[in-house]
Specification:
Largest sheet: 8 strands, mixed
CATH architecture of the largest domain: 3-Layer(aba) Sandwich
Strand content: 25-35%
Distance between the termini: 27 Å
Shape: globular
Helix content: 25-40%
Number of domains: 2
Number of strands: 27
Radius of gyration: 22 Å
Oligomer: single chain
CATH class of the largest domain: Alpha Beta
CATH superfamily of the largest domain: P-loop containing nucleotide triphosphate hydrolases
Amino acid sequence: MGKGLVIAATHSGAGKTLITMALLRCFKRQGFNMAAAKTGPDYIDPAFHAKAIDGICYNYDLWAMNDASLLAIETQLGAADMTIVEGVLGLFDGAISKTNKHANRGNGSTADVAARLNLPVILLVDAGAMGQSVAALVHGFASFRPDINVAAIIFNNVGSERHKKILIDAVAPLGITVIGCLPRHNDLRLPNRHLGLVQANEMADFETFIEKAADYISKHLDLNLLASKFLSLQAKTQMSEDSVKTSRLNPLGQNIAIAKDAAFTFIYPHILAQWRDQGANLSFFSPLADQLPAADIDAVFLPGGYPELFASELASKDNLRHSLQNLAANKAIIYGECGGYMAMGKGLVDSQGVRHKMFDLLDLVTSFEQPKRHLGYRHLSHQSALPWAANLRGHEFHYTHALKANGQALFEATDAQGVSHADMGLQDGNIMGSYAHVIDVRPND
């Protein structure tokens, strides 16, 4: 199999995403067939990495994914020359459960991913406000788990040549390689919004930006030294073909129309791959561009995204509204997640308190007027027309809330600790949706 490494950090916001995508581009420019993965349930960061390599970035989620999905992703990553996995949060941060462990998966942290795949960790340290104390921090991270190989360090936000020398001298007794020190770089900041970074496809000149980032990384990091730290990726998942077949998310239908544009963008590549592998035909349409689902479809998937930012545009799409209502009347499955679920309602109240008409498929009104964060992993169980196993795993991340949600709930939900949440979503026969993003059929833990 190919080689890989993990880019981890001491905490969130240290610069993992920018540095990971820049490194991917650097090695791609050198002619390597690169693969990318992201730890945990994230849509936005993987889109940057996918653009960096002109390919696919897979999520690799030890808490939410079952062995069939992990095996398929490991196979894809192993086929590349080199894989870079971006971690999530800090190196040891993961799901908090009653036992904090799930069989041989740990808690889904970046450290657990590195251990499972036997990959070295490159520890990114934001040293902007640190001097000699950085040695204690690095020593703690490097020694906290004996099964984790912290093979090298990258210092970020270094203030001067003197600061650089202080940092390198401080960690020298630890015997851990310093790949390089990155000076402060205010002109290479990725813009943010309420769900995280602004998406890669919304940046006006992303190609120029990533080339600039790659040039910056090439100047300040020893890429040859970093390349020597890659180790052979060792897939740990073993499954029979029959077990794989029973562990997948079945397609919503034979011919599935998927909304995809700036308002509906959060789609997991591993789910699309599973549907295609099972023979489903996938087509895509843009609600914002007045496109309609193909006439021969038997299922519609409205994924998450940012309908709250495009509420007035979506309100004007009468042809799409009628098309979806006709498909629903003809018993096509219509399924929405988070933003897609919001669009299935009767109305959406924007941040200014203005209500906009939505697709009127469910007795639902949602609001962005008083944002409140809802975030976390979810155990999901259901009895519905969804062609999936009764027990699923997913996650929830949104700032809107339901002002009205009348009807039968789609999911019973608990968080990673097993604490019950209010029933999620709505179902009306073949019309279903919720705020949850489904990731996979629940693993056997």
